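Following the same procedure, the fold was encoded as tokens, giving this record:
***
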Amino acid sequence: MNITTPLKKISDSQLRFMFYTLWFVVLLIQARYTELFSDEAYYWNYSTNLAWGYFDHPPVIAFLIKCGYYLFPNELGVRLFPVILNTLTIFILEKIINPKDLRLFYVIVSSSFFLQIAGMLAIPDTPMLFFTATFFLLYKRYLERESFLTAILIGLNIGVLLLSKYHGILVVGFTILSNIKLLRKWHFWVTAALAMLCVLPHLLWQFHNNFPTVRFQLFERPDEGFDLNNTLQYITAQPFVFGPVISLILLILCFKFKPASKFESALRYNLIGVYAFFLFMTFKQRVEAHWTLIAIIPMIYMGYSKLQFHNLFKKITYYAFYVTVVLLVAVRIFFMYDYLPSTNLTDDFKSEYHGWKTWATIIKNLAKGKPVVFMNGYKEASQYKFYSGGDAITLNNIMGHKTEYDIWKYENAYQGKDVLLIPNYTVGNLQTIETPKGKDEYMFINNFRSYSTIKITHDDNKVVVNKAQPFTVKIGLEALPEDLKYIDVQSNKDYKAFISYTFFTSKSYVSETFTDFTLTNDMLNNNKTYDLNITPPKEPGDYVVYLAIRSGWLPPSISSKKLRVIVK
């Protein structure tokens, strides 16, 4: 018996209605009864401070969450518009492909773990994927009939695509490379001008905030250097990102695809270009597997075009679909209800997706109205604020990296207050409290002081020294006028403000050294420089060192740009 027989008993119009209705309703239920993932809670925090940009991403996801949360102040509100866009993405993809075998198309889509599970998540990838689909639909229509109106719509679409996620520039760039003659058309320059006009507010935000995203990606982020494991992990993960079986089938078929039009050439350029670009990126750093998701649109188009004529792969696809549905049901239920047994293997996984409401309530009861200071990252502070409504910040230090919390500078409002501090590592001599996340250490600090808004400046980019030979760096201490009024480095004698420096290789921490350089208030913004003596590691090598300000025993803040140190 043909395994597609049950589907053949209904018409395409009936199937279409059933598919989209079921897809949308299931995502809505999932969205309402699944606790926020940590990234979603972080983006919800974005939405409480609407701006034209954020440290990590452009603003579209924050705007979508803001609109949905206004209608439903819960998990469903956070995810409402991402769910709508996810459903529309599939509908637009159907319009682009215009599949003759509608059942096969829906089976391919439904076999995708990303579209099914991540489709309800409030993450920047969801609007990026939607505007990628609309871009290709508009581009296809433009190639069929060069309309000025379509060129305008493409320009606006590109603008919103880039405001969704920076990866959208790859879609635009590889499309232009596939049809370089576009540069000769005046329509192209109208499109480019409109796209730039849309993105201009975000560029101005970057300028007014001293280009935080650019500085982090190009200058502040540690250069990991080449690691073969990064490349191998990328290569082995990609055949399974879209779905456990369907990805491999589609990729195999995509290699056999020969474009028959400029539009199909653009899709092929995008598929190969995206995978090649991120493969190249693995030579410098680890690449997250899902960064290639913008290739989903061309992969489904090209893969479906070949799959509909390939009986063996089509049969495998249908069988794999039924297995995938069973797995997806199990995953969906787990996200809504934790049914896994508690073991050493499952506990970390379980705690990542469950228990945030209970955890936040326990921490809020412990804080007794005091603001909570978490160390490093963003997830705990974001989840705490969403589920408890309490005040919280993340205090990022040299072992982590900056986040949007550093731009918001919420810590200014905490200076001099009594706070509850929860470290992200084991200190060893603090009180503990049991939560669904395990045992959290904590302590209360009176007259809290932190100094991440103070910048240690220096003009050096690289020094070459002999091993264990001290060298001197001339430093300055600066703070913006709006931050200076909150800073008092001498007010808490139990948390003295002093400078430390930390050495790293491209891949790991080496050492931290405390200095006797103690700060006083009159050192800030006085246009003076001070000599800071630094002793390099004893082993020869290529290092970077960061200068930092410590507040007593608290970890060092992120206070300076990196300085490359070559030890002979």
Observations:
- The longest strand covers residues 541-551.
